[in-house]
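## Example record

The block below lists the input lines for one assembly entry, exactly as stored, with component labels intact.
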Amino acid sequence: MAQPSNGFFGRDTLLGAFLLLLSILIMVLRFDDGLANLRQGSLAVVSRLEAPLSNVRVFRQALNTNRELQRQNILLQDELNRLRSAETQNTILRDLINFQDGSTLDLLPVQFQSKSIFSPNPTGSITAGSELNVGLGNPVIHPQGIVGRVILTTRHRAQVMFYSHPNFRVSAKILDSRATGIIRWDLQNNQSMILDYVPLTIPVQLGQQVVTSGFSEQFPENIPIGIVESVERQPDQSSWVITVTPSVDLNRLAEGFVVLNSQDSVLRGEVNP
Amino acid sequence: MNQTSFARMIFLGIGMLLSYVMLFQHVTIARVSLDLMAIYLVWVMLAYPRFQSTWFAAVVGFLLDAMTDQWGLNMFAYTGAVILLYGVFERFREIKLLDWQYLTLLFGFILLKSSLFALTTLFTNGVDLAQPVWVFILGTSVYTVIVGYIVNVISPS
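Predicted structure tokens for the full assembly:
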């Protein structure tokens, strides 16, 4: 059975009041000199009590530290990757600027907004349009070589036909021999270009550079196109079938130049040569 | 109450106090720590009269304060909680508690104790709960009740 409690001023109440007052007194005097020795003593006791488990806490702390360091490591790695990416981008942009400064062509720097390289009609859109004098047929190039030509313009955008487009053609020459031909995309292997119409009388060697010939109303002379990868002789044909590896990798292409005032425009008399 | 069970309760308290100081005060979940001594004082209140329970609460609080350098805070909170809630606990002293009854008593006790503790810290310099008051009160209460239930399940009596 439950024991009866004492009255309001009973023993229990007085004890409770006394202990509460005592605790309040301890709270008030906790920073007083009188409790300093007691605090020091309790600190020593607690230190001794906690000593055996300190290694466990150190280990736990080490685990936490390790977890935090791993997190920091990931963040740093991410930052490093971004810095490397920025450095690469910086190098690319610097090369573009150097190319533009060293070129006699009227170049308009552009960025590719979208690319559909693997579609049946490989095209891409660039961040410049008729407002910046980008016109139909303007060549699009990169410091490494030819990219394509403009086939559609709006005020702020333009569509570019890549060199891998089935309808893309450009007059080209082998740099060493100056033998000319027509470059087109190899639709069979879909990885390289074909240089047609180079006579069998012209010796062609692997590794020779192929550039634009200048016999075009659009493309200026000596813009790199690619490197001779293979040379074949077809039966009953009077010209080589030369496979050319493109200089520009469309997969990695992000920037380029539109050649303004191209020969076509010059020939039409739209601009002063 | 014989002296054997009384001594056993004292040793149990000392053991729980030491285990709390050495281990359980460092086992925090979301910066909320367990109040192991509240579980102990619930047992005490269910076993001893008000006079002894009040003494137990004060001594446990004082020792805990000494161990954690919170002089007077736990002593005040435990003693106050025991004084205020003993009347409720007294009704259940002679009966075997169901789990939910035990957990409700424990939750009520730890809730009141935590509230008194948090309230006291408002008037005390140099003590910081390190979290919002409601997080401290509810977090400690829930954490303690869960552990109290586990202890109640695995304890022999």
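The longest helix of chain A spans residues 33-102. The two ends of chain A are 116 Å apart (CA to CA).
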